[in-house]
Design a protein that fits this description.
Number of strands: 14
Shape: globular
Helix content: 25-40%
Order of helices and strands: EEEEEEHEHHEEEHEEEHEH
CATH topology of the largest domain: HIT family, subunit A
Radius of gyration: 19 Å
Number of domains: 2
Amino acid sequence: MKFTKIEILESCSDTVYLGTINEILTVLIGNKNLPDEIELNKDIILNKNTPQIINEQGINKIYYPASPEIIDWYKNKVIIVTETYKDYEEKIEPYIDSILETNTKWVKNILYYKMETERILFKNKKFIIIKNIAWESENDFYLLVIPFEKIKNIRHLNIQHKELLENMKKKSLEVAKKFNYFDNNLYFFFHYHPTCYHLHLHVCLINHKALKFRIYRHVLLENVMKELDTIGKKIMKFEMCISNPIYKLLEK
């Protein structure tokens, strides 16, 4: 199985390459100056539509196949858009509902079907805390906190969720302390729009390499907590790939 490089999409601490595996568009993230062709280790198993953490041969991660949204994201074909509550209610939520079952399958597998149990660091009746796949090494601390309640995104939060959110932060801090990280080392945030429409809180180091400079899309937990009585109907502004169906719906 061979990765053939087409172009470099982005270069920073890691380099992002667009190429092909078996003539299928693939995004590979790895060291700088990788060769134009890489014969992948035969033990590497690629699961379609799931980013694979590799950490060998100078490769950190592979997206196979690479969706148009992933390619556009790394090509920086991103634009700032505005979404009113009417937009969300009439255009966006119906689209989310149409993809919800498939989109949230990986969360359901962890919450209910005891899959990927090695990633779980804490669990109670209200939520679980797992290692994010972006936690690739000792210095890449990154958690996801996932409630059992079916909440699509931050628009569906209200004042009744205050205690849940407070406890999610409290328990994630307890986990972080076991790794010698504290409140002043960490960001607590949600994505809007998220990639998965089952609410999940991101907890990561403030200098984590996975953080992209997308100011609007990262919504800090402390700001969400302040707006629980209004966040559902507020005007949202966020960065979005131009190939994303939501961007196309908002443009109509």
